[in-house]
Amino acid sequence: MEDTLNLNDFDALSFDCYGTLIDWEAGLSRGLMEVASLSPTAPDTSTLLETYGDVEAQTEREHPGMLYPEIIARSMIATGDAYGIEVPDTLAAAIGGSVPGWPAFPDSSEALQRLKQRYRLIILSNVDRHSFAGSNRRLGVEFDAMLTAEDIGSYKPNPRNFEALLATIDEMGIPKQRLLHVAQSLFHDHVPAKAAGLATVWIDRRAGKAGGGATPIPNDAPEPDWRFVSMAEFADAVEARTQ
Length: 243
Prior knowledge:
Rossmann fold; DNA polymerase, domain 1; alpha/beta; 11% strand
């Protein structure tokens, strides 16, 4: 698809946040290490992370109106249950409340500043407003629009989230064909974004790693229009191709 699309063809970028801009797996892994410390027979963190990813996706489907910290707390308890580990409610709640302290990827802020010079920037994230406010301070850029699961009442990959995105860009005067969606997760983002008719950029943060980590692997993953292993590489490509 790179042969038929050009990065000059777009006026706005919509971003997933956690996994793409914020190191979601690092934040979750810290919590899962605390869960593992409760049992001498707990599996390794990578195994817990994959289990957590499946559990979280199910919890989001079953409780679309629940705020993300509670989604995390419930998913931590359920992940522990899968291995016979009893996770205290207080620990689960503390992990759920840790989102504002999760680190940004080292290249996210600088890349966003560079992209801001060329595009309007939009967030479409499976998060609540309070948690994202902490993350946004780490990213250090002003987004032109921010859509959270709390605002929409559902979690990606629910098509409703992308319907909300399309309604927002319509209000902003941006045609759908001028929007490029940027995300790490094929499951949460690329499948529904492609179904909504959007061009996509895959920021493959797990390049070279085995398995899907905290992101479920979709049965029929679409082909993104571009693939980069970092936000810095994406920003470099934008600057090279839009001069």
